[in-house]
Amino acid sequence: MIKVTIDGVEIMVEPGTTILNAARQAGGDIVPPAMCYYSKLKGSGGKCRTCLVKVSAGSEKDPRPMPKLVASCSTPVQDGMVVQNITSPEVLEARKGVVEFLLINHPLDCPVCDQAGECHLQDLGFQHGSAKTRYEEERRQFDKIDIGDKIQLHMTRCILCYRCVYTADQITNQRVHGVLKRGDASEISTYIENVIENDFSGNVIDVCPVGALTDKTFRFKSRVWFVKPMNAHRDCNKCSGKVAIWMHGEEVYRVTGRKDKYGEVEEFICNDCRFEKKQKSDWVIEGPREVERWSVIGQNKYAVGTKVTAPQNIGYGNIID
Amino acid sequence: MGQKLLLEHINVPEIQTYNVYRAKGGYKAVEKSLKMSPDEVMEEVKKSGLRGRGGAGFPTGMKWSFLDRKTDKPRYLVCNADESEPGTFKDRFLMEKIPHLLIEGLICSSYALGSNTTYIYIRGEYKWIVGILEKAIAEAKNAGFLGKNILGTGYDLEIYVNNGAGAYICGEETALLESLEGKRGNPRMKPPFPAISGLYGSPTVVNNVETLAAVVPIINLSGEEYAKIGIGKSTGTKLISACGNIRNPGVYEIDLGLPVYEFLNSDEYCGGIRDGHRLKAVIPGGSSVPILPAELFYKNIKGEERNMSYESLSDGGFVSGSMLGSGGFVAMDETVCIVRNTWSFARFYHHESCGQCSPCREGTGWMEKVLHRIEYGHGHMHDIDLLVDVAKKIEGNTICPLGDAAAWPVAAAIRHFREEFEYHIKYPDKVKNSRFAHLDDYKTSLQLA
Q1: What is the ipTM of this complex?
Q2: In this predicted structure, what is the pLDDT of residue B335?
Q3: Residues A101, B359: C-beta atoms closer than 8 Å
Q4: Are A85 and A6 in contact (CB under 8 A)?
Q5: Distance (Å, rounded) from C-alpha B28 to C-alpha B22?
Q6: How many domains is chain B partitioned into structurally?
Q7: Predicted pLDDT at A305
Q8: Is B326 domain-assigned?
Q9: B151 and B290 both lie in a single domain
Q10: For residue A320, is pLDDT > 50?
């Protein structure tokens, strides 16, 4: 076990742990936000740059600071490393910049977006963004593409986190989904507007941090904060069958994987469970899910013991200015 | 008159062919180095103080010593011939005119590093050079300098030329390796560095064409002799590709440490600014490095004369200095519009960003659009500070140095030529596609040398 100090909090972790995962072990406000890193997907991370932190001492042996801010999701800790996240104004400034970059070409169509309420970009923008934009140019736009009859890809909202690409690579058995073109013209796509036919393709919806990949069986049916998430399971021969079902009265509006507080699914589920089993009788309901993540869903008053804690020390006050 | 180490025989007719190159003393470095042990060859390179000629100026010997020699995986040497920096064309000249020099340097370096398979990754636009290099490789192979059991030493080496598809980003070493593996040319996250896990997960060294070619004179002269050329930690000779508003554009080999005044104005090199004009600004090392106004180019902020070396050009940091970079020397006279030039660079980086990480993907496009607006007379005063802020937020926060390369020229242009940006915003009608030579009220405010 080696020792790492993040924002003054000392944590003992296994060698090889990344700074982000070390922070997650400690929990609380010192956890950097992550838009592209996904612990279940190999090779993910490093791209969105929201998790940048300052390493003020590299290690016990070599206490020199690292010259640049580093991506905490892909930098392994060293023994005696000292990391600054929310205690470093430089980090917060850089993060604010990254959020601004992510938003300049984002359509901000939250009022009509199915992801609104559980969108990581919304949360990130609320915590670290500013209320005004300095971007005066036209925003990038793409046509909507149907990838199969159940999934819709709306590239305009995409932040190019590559999570769905890794999912399609690693969870499904065929590489049918990737990135085309370059720079700010690059787009996630199947080649060319091809259908992903695979039992686990629906997981690309769960991993998407924004509303770029949405479930067509749930499209425009309800806002997420009007539906109740319940833990449920069924016997499934393809996946574990452990899911979260989102109910409106007695109706099952949608089925997703069970997400932890960092928005990552605990287990990937199959398309049968996700898209086909929309009857209450298909499921054994275990009980309501706690909403741990600070988000607009938490405003709903149904879940027992729901923790709604707004992050402290972070300048979301500028939403008013 | 400086020494010519790389371009000594450049004007010999048919120097591209093996026979002529050999007759002029070619491949002696191979014969010499194969009699030494690989460690001794590396020691010579270390002693020579050779620094990477691709732009960063990292000591080559040190880079080689990082190569993981303990694994049982094969080791690779990759020659980075993806020379795409605007303003830089030295490697093209070298490969086109004297391809055997590169092949010879590759053999010596591969031997030192223990690489049995060496790749030349050449940019897509240099398609015709692929043929030149492949011909040179075939000739070297016929002469027994490549293939199995070279010169009876038991050392095997094959060199392959790989043509890129024309992406600037593939000149970044990890993106180059991805591309060489047949993937999309996205830079990799570091660590692990290529010296530990590079091409196909094996230890790899990636070096610029000129760096590897410079190994030949180092072996021939010995590292110590080579280190005597140059100034301070900038040893040896460097190819500079000079262009812009100068009398004699071209590729010149200079001893590092040559005074910049002499380089720009002597007839042996650039020959001075074209008649009737005066120097306004210089980009000393390719489009990525900060631009310098004339007075800061000749003398640093302390008033000392600058010379062509890594240290002297970067004296003053990014506030009042620049970098030697890849040696893409661009001189501009007073007719050049800095805003248009900056926009042109920003457009290039916008087009060439790989789109992997958000600051570079979104920031380069943003800067380009704002600069375009200013150049075409639709700018606002607050756009200038916006550009500075966007550049600051890209710089240092990206996966690879392309973000920095996009941010530096914009930040430097505004730092040194802010009045020109303001002039564009104040008088949009005057500056639209204008030549500044004709704007009298503007010209008087300029400090020219």
Answers
A1: 0.91
A2: 86
A3: yes
A4: yes
A5: 8
A6: 3
A7: 47
A8: yes
A9: no
A10: no
Identify the contact set of chain A against chain B, taking CB-CB distances under 8 A.
45-49, 52, 68-69, 71, 74, 76, 93-94, 97-98, 100-102, 104-105, 134-135, 137, 159-160, 162, 178-179, 181-186
The reply to whether B156 and B96 lie within a common domain is yes
Average pLDDT of the segment spanning B378-406? 95
Task: Residue count of chain A, please give it.
Answer: 321
pLDDT value of residue B252: 95
Domain that holds residue B160: 18-228
Residue A124, SS3?
helix
Phi, psi of B156 (to 5 degrees): -105, 140
Residue type, A33: P
Contact present, B214 and B4 (Cβ < 8 Å): no
Q: Tell me: the pLDDT tens digits for B247-290?
A: 999 999 999 999 999 999 999 999 999 988 889 999 999 999 99
Is A157:A214 a contact under the CB 8 Å cutoff?
Answer: no
Q: Which amino acid is at A38?
A: Y
Distance CA A6, CA A26 (A): 9
DSSP code for A274:
I
Residues facing residue B329 across a β-bridge: B242
Amino acid code (one letter) for A106: H
Answering whether pTM is above 0.90, one says: yes
- Please give the full DSSP string across B20-63, using - where no structure is assigned: HHHHTTTTHHHHHHHHS-HHHHHHHHHHHT-B-TTTT--BHHHH
Among residues B283, B313, B333, which one ends one of the domains?
A: B333
On whether both B253 and B283 belong to a single domain, the answer is: yes
- Per residue in A227-240, pLDDT (tens digit) is 888 999 999 999 99
Give the CATH number of domain A141-216: 3.30.70.20
Right CATH number for A2-97 from 3.10.20.740, 3.30.420.240, 2.40.50.140, 3.40.50.720?
Answer: 3.10.20.740
User: If contacts are CB pairs under 8 Å, which of residues 175-204 in chain B contact chain A?
Assistant: 184, 189, 191
